[in-house]
Amino acid sequence: MSKRSNNKIYDFGDLQSQDDVRREFIANLSHELKTPIFNIQSYILTLLDGVDDENTKNEYLKKANRNVRRMIRLVRDMDVLAHLESSKLVLNKEGYNLTEQIDDVLEQVSDRIHDLNIKVIHDYDTSITRIAFADPERMEQVFLNLVSNAIKYSKPDFKDRLIKFKIEEFDNFFLISIEDNGIGIAKNDIQRIFERFFRADRSRSVKGKLGSSGLGLAIAKHIIEAHGMVIRVTSNLGIGTTFSITIAKP
Ligand SMILES: Nc1ncnc2c1ncn2[C@@H]1O[C@H](COP(=O)(O)OP(=O)(O)O)[C@@H](O)[C@H]1O
Ligand SMILES: [Mg+2]
To answer: Which of 14, 168, 210, 243 could covalently link to 175 via disulfide, CB atoms 3.0 to 4.6 Å apart?
Structure first.
């Protein structure tokens, strides 16, 4: 066979797989939208039938609203992802205080950390200022997702939950790791967690799953790679997970 026909076969295969990816993506998306839409509809229909009790009425409205919020979050994540994947993302890189950013992110999730009694460990000298060079808004999104995951996928009914932050400094970059002692990720799932919409089976039954779209890590990976940096994960099922990312220095 000539080189040329080989190329043709290769091209065809590539188009085919792109098509599969697109089809799977649309199937996933409609599935993700169906759940909240049908939930909202059933609350509205029940309310239309007439609910006398004010408390019950309120409860249904709140539940419907939670599902609306889920849809909004999904659409927002899709929007970010679409921008990232069409390489339209403009990074506004600047020097900023990395240690402060981690504290900011922890502040945003402090209620949940408090409610679940999670111990936060800073495995670095918190008095040192570390200046990173990246898009602070995008990096906040990455940290927020990693920390939210560490919280969301902590072990239910486990008393000694912890999240450990570590910062190591190299010549040109920082290596930051976020370790949890949560439910962990099965070996078979680990290479798939950065895929759009992927959620491990176990995590589908996790409390607070309404906050979960399976897009967070896909977005995080895009952001980190757009910076020319890397994101890595190691995990043991039932023991815990560690995500590590690199961030450039100025
Ligand atoms: N810290 C973690 N511990 C255990 N599983 C995790 C952790 N972070 C991510 N995962 C797994 O990876 C999947 C994808 O994560 P993500 O893209 O952030 O989606 P989401 O948070 O919306 O479920 C999760 O559904 C979960 O199965
Ligand atoms: Mg997430």
So the answer is: 168
